[in-house]
Design brief:
alpha/beta; two-stranded antiparallel ribbon
């Protein structure tokens, strides 16, 4: 009997065989279970390894996630910092732009203020200038009115002077004095004072209005003033042919008489020049004479009396002044020649001294060239000494560079 689990089982061969088979099966199952256990252990080991790898991967994944989270945090921080910096930069730029705008506005305000101030100053200056100009214009107007008043007074005075001049010219003696005064004024302006004499008495007892001392030839020449005004006015005021013919005859007679008087009184052989000048104080009378009475002019030429007006008299006197200047230069020719000789000697002395100075400069230039050559040679030798290039010195150079010692004088 076999007790299995508290149950008694009768044992027989069949049972035993069955049990054997069952044991075999159990053994087989155990073997199989062992193999399965080994397989399970291997699988468990593999699973454990896989779990370890998976744990490592999970750890790596966790680490990567942490790193990713840190990177995201860094990116977030960087983005936040960048955003903060951008905001700060934008705020700074906005502040700078705002400051620039404020500065520009302030500058524009100052410029506007300065422009307004300058405009006000210009307006003030313009108003002041306008006021000043108005005052000046009024002052000038007053001055011009005063000048007009003065001119009116002068015109009134001139009218009186004209009347006085008419009174003067209406009298023969005063008319002659007027011509003499005008002649004196012209001669005084044209000639030096020591070259003429006024109211000079000649050897024949006649008194000339002006005697000009010219060298020989032509010698002293007389200028006498004549003024045939009465005949000229009669000629101008003639209304009829009869009056005109009478005035012409009178004018010719008066002029011929003046020419004859000057020729007879003031042309003295050996004392005066062989001609004289008749001075007409009026350009109108002179023009009338040359325009309508050329025969009178030829009569004057024949009598060696040349008729001049104030204008032609000034030209003639300027020619005389040139003659006087030439004569005085001839008189001073000896002194001028002596002075030129002395000047020539002075120039020769200057040339000699310049030649000596040039010689000194040439010697000094040669000495400077010698000094420059010696300095250049000394520089080259000093460079050789500095570079220890003694082998480059030849025997001749060494001999030339040796300074001989002199024996002391006994």
């Amino acid at each position: 009997m076999i007790e299995v689990g508290g149950v008694l089982i009768p044992v027989n061969v069949a049972v035993l065989a069955a049990m054997g088979v069952l044991v075999l099966i159990v053994i087989l199952l155990l073997i199989a279970s062992g193999r399965a256990a080994r397989r399970a252990a291997a699988a468990s080991t593999l699973l454990s390894q896989n779990m370890v790898v998976l744990g490592q991967n999970v750890q790596h994944l966790s680490t990567g996630q942490a790193q990713l989270q840190g990177g995201l945090q860094t990116v977030s921080d960087t983005q936040a910092n960048a955003q903060t910096q951008v905001i700060q930069t934008v705020e700074a730029r906005l502040a700078a732009v705002q400051q620039q705008m404020q500065d520009r506005l302030a500058d524009n305000a100052m410029r506007s203020q300065r422009a307004m101030t300058e405009l006000q100053e210009r307006m003030k200056e313009t108003l002041h200038g306008s006021s000043k100009k108005t005052t000046t214009s009024l002052t000038q107007l007053q001055e011009r009115l005063a000048a007009i008043d003065k001119a009116q007074d002068n015109i009134t005075k001139l009218s009186g002077d004209v009347l006085s001049l008419q009174d003067i010219l209406s009298n023969k003696q005063t008319r002659g004095a007027f011509g003499e005064i005008q002649l004196t004024d012209i001669v005084g302006k044209a000639l030096p004072r020591d070259s003429y004499k006024l109211q000079e008495t000649l050897s024949n007892g006649k008194r000339a209005d002006c005697l000009i001392s010219l060298p020989n030839p032509p010698g002293p020449i007389v200028i006498d003033s004549k003024f045939p005004l009465d005949a000229y006015e009669a000629l101008r005021n003639a209304k009829t042919d009869y009056d005109l013919k009478a005035a012409v005859v009178r004018f010719k007679v008066d002029v011929k008489k003046h020419i004859r008087d000057i020729s007879e009184k003031y042309i003295i052989e050996g004392e005066t020049a062989d001609g004289a000048l008749m001075f007409l104080p009026s350009e109108a009378v002179y023009a009338e004479l040359h325009a309508n009475f050329p025969e009178l002019v030829r009569t004057g030429f024949d009598a060696r009396v040349w008729i001049v007006s104030p204008t032609t008299c000034m030209a003639t006197l300027n020619t005389m002044r040139a003659i006087l200047k030439d004569a005085r230069m001839r008189e001073q020719a000896g002194a001028i020649r002596t002075t030129l000789k002395q000047l020539h000697r002075d120039v020769e002395l200057v040339v000699e001294r310049v030649d000596k100075l040039n010689t000194h400069f040439s010697l000094a230039r040669k000495d400077l060239d010698g000094i420059g050559t010696a300095a250049e040679r000394a520089g080259k030798r000093a460079e050789r000494l500095d570079n220890f290039d003694f082998e480059e010195l030849t025997a001749d150079e060494i001999a030339a560079n040796v300074v001989p010692l002199k024996q002391p004088d006994s």
